[in-house]
Specification:
Length: 397
Amino acid sequence: MTTISPPMTPRGARFGTLMRVLALVATLVSPVSALSASSACACPSSETSACTIATLIPADVTSTCDPSTLDSDGFLDENVIVDGNTFVRSINLSGLRRLGGELVFRESRFVTKFEALELTETGGDVRIEGATGADDFTQNIELPMLRVVGGSFAVVGQTHVSFTALDVSSLETVNGYFNVSGNSNLKALTVTNLRTVTGGELKIFDNHAALAVRANCGVEAEGLVNGVVTDLSARASSTFAHDSVSYCSLCTLDYENMGWDYALSRDVYGATLGSSTLRAFNSSYSCSSNLDADGFLNENLTLIVERNYDLTYDLSALKHIAGDLEIIYRGDSSDDAPLTSSQCDTTSTPTVSSWLSDPRNVSVNIQNLERVDGALKVRTQADETRTRRRVCTSNIP
């Protein structure tokens, strides 16, 4: 018997709604920015070549900056603006999770590494701009957890030979423009979670000619520009230049022998999303994402159900998939014979068992699935090694 457990029950749905309301309440009670108009933190231009939260100082005599107000949740209600600093060599904003204002780094050509490894959200821009008319020494820009930018996002004018990749795969929302341009050696850009650019254009151009872009599965049908830029006029003036762009890859789960089932008198097999091996479906595809802590998978996922296995796929940890979720029930060579006349009787509806013969016990558990950005598909497929298909021959002229 083949069963697919349904999505949430009404009770489960109500619980999910309650959790979302609680999350909203938690957001509402989070620190609210009351950013001073004079706020402008900068890196020192003497004493130390490493810039951290603790070493931030007022940008000038008219500015204010108090890094000691960084709270226990990693919130700092300041602007951080590093402009024209030729002394500092590295910027590491460890401990910063939310920034009330903007984060701007420009014309500071001797900085080799820029890191804000825990930063998830800013109230204003995130702009990293190379030195105009001069070689830039920045080799690494690390923003692995940045999810929401309250203003615009830009990485422009980076010219160092080692700056070849930019991974902002956590970035979901930009409330301004998005600009990655003029980075002469940039060959890889990863924006696999980018869903909305609400306040302007998307500009990706004048990077390395071999630039490969990996984008969000959910915008594959529309393309990156149409899929994420919300304003129609901004879409029309957007620029997307690249050598290649890929959206969804295709993953599958490796199932394994779970042991002998004495009730069935045979081996049973299974796989669990989140713990079993998640790999590329075949050599034509890649699979580079894993299920995250929130139950999100930024891939297409195809599961193969072989008729001669007792098999359970446990996808109970999956809540949101960015691509397609497809389940293929595949027959084997024992099903080569054509259907009988009684099975092909056009006066009655053939049963599932008529077409699938005698399937084993198969379960696909997706009871917590809330959202599929692509398609949810269940279909049958003949094994590729078969030379004949199970068809109704009696009705063919």
